[in-house]
Amino acid sequence: MTKYIYVILAIALSCVLNASAATTTVEQANDAYGNEHYNKALELYLNAEKNQGTSSQLCYNIANTYYRLKDVPRAILYYERALILDPSNDDARFNLNFVRERAVINEASGDTYFSTRIEAWVSAFSSNTWATTGIVAFILFLIALAAYFFMDNVTVRKLGFFGGIILLIVAVTANVCAFYMHSKAVNRNSAIVMTIGPVQVSTAPRTPKDKSEVAFEIKEGYKVNVLDSVKAQGVKWLDIETIDLRRGWINAKDVEII
User: Fold this and answer.
1) Across all residues in the chain, what is the average pLDDT?
2) Cα–Cα distances in Å, from 151 out to 91, 138, 144, 147, 161?
3) CA–CA separation, 155 vs 170, rounded Å?
4) Rounded to the nearest 5 degrees, what angle is found at the Cα of 42, between the Cα atoms of 89 and 106?
5) Residue 191 burial (CB < 10 Å; 0-12/13-18/19+)?
6) How far apart are CA 39 and CA 74, in angstroms?
């Protein structure tokens, strides 16, 4: 029994020391950033990410540092990662839009205003927040249902009936949104073009072996969806689609998955 207690204490102590080390590293990085030592700050932030794991705030700090170093593609990459980890990170969202505007990156998708607003609304909250909302709404739905079936007061029964319908709709909607945001976070099939300067995209129909013509060019910082990947002549190629639905093959070394 004593042996197990020692093991548990050792694990707990290790967790405390790791958390302390992570805090120290990030604090050192924050100090370096505040003193405009951006290369040192970036090194420390990346070490913290590698050794202690990532977070929305850490990705946000890394993105800010990359922007200070005039590395726009990686700044955009880490702002996007910050938003995947925490969609409610308004600072990351504001800075991402600011950097894209300054870099003249126009990513108009062609979607309708309504669908764009729905996407923005759903993406404003994490999957955990949506799931919690769904659970709470379902519990309240059960209470409303009980009020409708077991209460004698007509007004209370009406409130239970109509309130239950609304709560059920909220519960279902919240769970659908939670599933969507979870899938979006887990299945990371979006990428940022990292190569400085225009990148040529092949039009080959099945594989990029035959690059008979160039479909279009895309510059650094643009976001693409990765649909498939193949290896041809020792090179990994990605079948990508832009937000405005242009499609083609791009060398995997030219992009980085969000």
Assistant:
1) 84
2) 48, 19, 10, 5, 11
3) 22
4) 50
5) buried
6) 14
What is the identity of the amino acid at 206? R
Kindly report the pTM of this predicted structure: 0.72
pLDDT in tens, 196-251: 878 888 876 666 655 556 678 888 999 999 998 888 778 888 999 988 888 888 99
For residue 214 the two structure tokens come to 């160039």
To 10 degrees, the CA torsion angle through 45, 46, 48, 54?
100
Residue with tokens 């040192």: 40
